[in-house]
Structures are given as C-alpha cells and as structure tokens.
Amino acid sequence: MNFSKAVITAAAPSQRSLPLQSIVDRDGAVKSVLSLLVRQAMDAGAPDVCIVVHPGDESRYAAAVGTGGAGAVHFVTQSAPRGYGHALWSAREFVGGEPFLHFVGDHIFLSNDPGEHVAERIAQVAREAGCAVSGIQPTRESLLPYFGTIGGQRVKGTQDRFLIERVIEKPTPTEAEQTLIVPGLRAGHYLCFMGTHVFTPAVLELLDGTVAAANENEDIPLSPVLDELAQREQYLAVGVHGRRFSLDMKYGLLMTQLALALSGDDRDEVLSSLCDLLAQREMK
What is the pTM of this model? Predict the structure, then answer.
C-alpha cells in the first residue's frame, strides 16, 4: 500500500502551543517540534503534509515549519474543538480518498536506530502488508490513562507484529485486564499507541458516518472508529524499537530534550554537564 500524504493533528486547545516549542535536535541544531515532525513525515515517504490547526494559528505554524526540505506543507483548520477524531476528519479533502500517514502533534518519536525514524518503520510495514498499521509500545499499567490501547494476537512467525482485534481509549486497568490482554507480554503491561499510524481511506469513511450521526457540538473520538476498523478489515500493529515522548506530560519537553541530546552528536558534552551538575548538587 503506497501513500504520499501525511496529516499532523495540532489543534487541541490545551496542546496547540506544544508543536511550536524549540528543541535541539540530534545534530545540535535548534528546531521547532513541528519541523521535526514534518521532516520525519517526508523521510517516511509523504512529501505532501497537512497540519490541522486551530483557526488563526496558520501563520505561527508556517513560521515554525520553516522553509527547509523538499515537499509541500498545507494547513486546514478544525472548525471547533470537537476531539481527536474530528480533527483528523477535518483533513478529509486534503487526503482525497488515499491512504495516508498520521502523527499526533504533541509527541516526539525516537528510534533506537539514529539512522531510521519510527515513521519509516511503520510505513515499511504498511507497504509490505497492504493494510492500516499503527505503531505500538509495551506500556505499564499505570500509564493507561494517557494512551489508546489495543488487544489482539501476535502474527504467526513474527516478534513485533500484531493483528488488532480491539481498540479502547484510555482503558481502566480492570477493563484492560478483561479485554486487552496480549499473550506473551510481561504482566502488568499493555500495547499502547505511539501516535504514529498509516491509515487506509476506510478510517475517514467511518469518521464521516460518526460525524453525520453526532450532535452539532459532540466530541468525536478516534479510538471507537479504529475499533470498528479492526472489525472491518485487516489492521496491524507493529512494535517499534524506540520511544514516544509526550510533550504535554509533566517534564515531557525536558525528557524529550534529554533523550535527543543523549542520542545525538553532543552526547559526551551533555553527559559531562550532567555529571558536573550532579557533583555540584552533592557538594552543596
């Protein structure tokens, strides 16, 4: 399954400033979070990128993207703050009935391999399997309130691919234990979304029906639509050798910056500075 478009959602009222934050990348250059995400989308094979923003934020986001890199960046607005699914649905005309790559705008995704982005791995699996694919990561039970979570079965003969059977948004531990256990996972851990996906056009078709049936101001979540997608067609999850960093969590930006610095060109300098800081603290 080939695709050339990507959608980044960044319109949530409580999170719309996060993609504009400056951060030092692995190469030592200061960049915006948004520009990192756009670059990763293009490197994964999606040169045409759409960013869903709050009305009036277009100019700020355009400045944050900058002019680097080959490709095109477009902006669409989410008419009202009606949830994640509604934000993705707002990009339906841009997508135009094609498969597409999707990121959330308040996460940074770091692969354990500096030469490969998380999105590249997910895109590769989607092209091979010819179906929707979401990146997942084993996540301890205490973090379930922050992520969508899947249940399913490991694909025979693989270590990191799973056939998705259920999707539940931020399940309770009891709910997860009853419906989302995946054989082979460590006790107390579940498979949670990383915020990186390749979707088939069916996702937006299902969202069309959800939006049409909802009240005018009703929130439109995405997870119930993905749960329905899993019943309708093959939908895979792939475990990614890397980490997601949620910028809206406590110390999220700090931990993201440390992870980038410790896996980048300035690693030795950063480690030395951290050791000095800890030594001075102990002396005091």
Answer: 0.92
